[in-house]
Design brief:
It is a single chain. The protein is an alpha+beta fold. Helix content is 27%, strand content 19%. A six-stranded antiparallel sheet has the order 7-8-9-10-11-12, covered by helices on one side. Bound molecules: 2-acetamido-2-deoxy-beta-D-glucopyranose (5 copies), calcium ion (CA) and zinc ion.
Amino acid sequence: MKTISLLGFVAASVVASAAPSGINNSAATAIKPFRPILKHRESFLVHEEPIALQIQASQLSLSDSALVGTMVSDELKDIGAAVLNFLGAQYKVPTSNMRVTNAYTDSASGITHVYVVQTVNGVDITNAVANINVSKDKKVISSSQCLVAEAVLTSVTKESPLMQDESDLDQAKQALALLASHLGVPLDKTATGAVAAAVVTSETSGQTYVSLETVPDSIAISGTATASRAYVQQEDGSLVSTWRVNVEQQDHWWNANIDVAGGKVISLVDWYANSESYYVYPKNINSPDEGTRKMVVDPANTDASPKGWVTEGSTYGNNVWAQSNPTGGNNWQNNHRPKAQSGNVFNYTLDLSAQPPKYVDAAITQLFYTNNLMHDLSYIYGFDEAAGNFQDVNYSGKGADGDAVIANAQDGSGTNNANFATPPDGQRPRMRMYVWTITNPRRDGDLEQDIVAHEYTHGISNRLTGGPANSDCLDYGESGGMGEGWSDAVANIMRLKSTDTHSTDLLLGDYVYTKTIRNYAYSTNMRTNPSTYKYLDRSDYQEVHSIGEVWAEMLYEVMWALIDKNGFSEDLFAHDLSKGNALMLQLLLDGMKLQPCTPSFIDARNAIIQAEKNLTGGKNACTIWGAFAKRGLGAKASGSDGKTHYEDYSVPGGC
Ligand SMILES: *[C@@H]1O[C@H](CO)[C@@H](O)[C@H](O)[C@H]1NC(C)=O
Ligand SMILES: *[C@@H]1O[C@H](CO)[C@@H](O)[C@H](O)[C@H]1NC(C)=O
Ligand SMILES: *[C@@H]1O[C@H](CO)[C@@H](O)[C@H](O)[C@H]1NC(C)=O
Ligand SMILES: *[C@@H]1O[C@H](CO)[C@@H](O)[C@H](O)[C@H]1NC(C)=O
Ligand SMILES: CC(=O)N[C@H]1CO[C@H](CO)[C@@H](O)[C@@H]1O
Ligand SMILES: [Ca+2]
Ligand SMILES: [Zn+2]
């Protein structure tokens, strides 16, 4: 493994050590909400022909408990009753086994929303629900439901829904104890015995539940919890009788369903916004030069990061551990990380007129955010677990795990640079971001997306070229140069805006360095950026960053040619491959997987052409050839490391 830096002219002084051992497994063990994924859940139905409800004013003999309480008008009650009849007829389920939990008419749209839950033995089946939308003229315009079939309902043994005796109170306590173990704060027998339990009837809802008192603080901050009877349908639609236990902790408010007989937690919901918020420069703002920070809520992509980005309350999670490292040393596990406010809110002051150490928490947050963005984006485009990506836990079971990125903000081992070290799959890569001394106050690379994107892309290209286990494929010469080039190219794709045109030039590192850190701006104008294939023969173009600049410029041409032909996607995360910029990113990653170890420019170009052929059947082949040919890497170009590079400006026959 070697450490690859952003710039050629500053050598990185510290070589990354092998993956540290003894890593905390907390990313894997954090308590996360879950629920049965119902196989029979019906997707949201919009009724093209709205279905008229049979409203029979006040004539339906529904028991009071089937309708919501005092806030509901007679008209809503009639609609509610008619909705229950509609569901009963439509899905062949007994209306006596349903109740309306809410019904209200939206004052703007005039649509009435009716929410229904199924019941058995007078107890709610918490996840057997239906939502029905009713138009002003009392027609069902749309609906969704995951109701339990009648046969399942009748199979449930009759039992008393009310908790009247000692054995019920005891079960409620056992349910609390089972939840406590699940939450990692077990209650022993004595502590369970010390919990006081009593049956209470709510004055507002009339519902009966067990109130649990003298609960240890570790489980419930208030010392109290509640438990009530419920049923839950499992993935296959069968029912399990549960206790629904509600406890509030410091940073969570759990509502759990516990199968006491089976000794396990069936579902777990966190009423605390199970969310993550970051006050950061969002993905369309490359640096402080382009705009201000915003609160970004729940940015994690659910395919790429199904359990979110944050493990718990600080800047570490399954994809990246971000921390400061002012000494520049090799330790990182116990380095400083900002602590989030309750509910994973990361919001720290950033005064750009101060020196970077003054805003280190904002910097670490930004670095954490951008690394996770890179993880999710590259995952969507095929740098996933099987392809050797960077994750502590590989949810698919594919690829090697235990290799989330170590990302050091304001690392003290250097200045005016950044670097990334990529060991093989299963070992942690390390990103080090430095402070830049060009300006006063100094500027922090953590705040500049193109720099972080450049570094992360070293990880992508190294793991994808030659397979996840081989990190030795992009070492020096043309392949090492293209390693730099792909990193600039991905940074460019990410920062391009819908308002940009051919006359927009992109300057890598322009926030920290105040101008481009490369020889030329990235531009489709031959005068602004004259780089061509022949440059690889120049004595001043033997260093990887210079070679990479030529490659990135060619890719910049390809990107624009694809955008010209196919249009621009505002959101790369939508993975809309019919658009030029998204297609470009896809072809780059696909090409990396196809190309050989230590590829030449010609190999890498051919891999991109082949990837495109495989993806679209070659619809853009001539477009891509044209863009490469513009910079001298046309059909008859030849050359490789140690050999003369012959330019060619032609495209293959047939184009
Ligand atoms: C109707 O209800 C569904 C949930 O079942 C909801 O997602 C949808 O937005 C509602 N439609 C209208 C038109 O209000
Ligand atoms: C490791 O986990 C423990 C709790 O299990 C936690 O206190 C500690 O901070 C974790 N280490 C890191 C580096 O976050
Ligand atoms: C961020 O925190 C500051 C206080 O430090 C607060 O004034 C501001 O409203 C918060 N911003 C957001 C978007 O929550
Ligand atoms: C070719 O494309 C198909 C989908 O069109 C994809 O499944 C396959 O992985 C691709 N193969 C290569 C070698 O890129
Ligand atoms: C090859 C490898 O390490 N696979 C692991 C992927 O992750 C799963 C779950 O974390 C492990 O069980 C596998 O061993
Ligand atoms: Ca991995
Ligand atoms: Zn680099």
